[in-house]
Specification:
The chain is mainly β. It contains no helices and eleven strands. The strands form two sheets. Strands 2, 4, 5, 6, 9, 10 and 11 form a seven-stranded mixed sheet that branches. Strands 1-3-8-7 form a four-stranded antiparallel sheet, with no helix packed on it.
Amino acid sequence: QVQLVESGGGLVQPGGSLKLSCTISGFTLAYYAIAWLRQAPGKGREEVSCISTDGSQTDYSDSVKGRFTIIRDNAKNTVYLQMNTLSPEDTADYYCATDIWRPDRSSCPNNLDGFRTRGRGTQVTVAS
């Protein structure tokens, strides 16, 4: 059974940091690019970051570039999102996702529409 499970969310003050984890099971992480996305109440999903299978390619949205870092540990079946200098605009439900039908694709595509196999998410709230 394919599963992605996010953890690490919570309440943090503006300027603070959080590290999210995405632990997978039911498939071989090393074959798949993984993305982090987020959705705030009343807004559409936003592509936050993506990492290629070997970690050599990392992409970030303009809104998080320089503040967030995505890394992966294939041996631990886990992808992380280190988030620094958080602001209230970062408040959202964060989830990881992959395109489970494309184990042949090692890199992150320009369009993540196919990244529909996802976890349930973890809530991040940035407030004082």
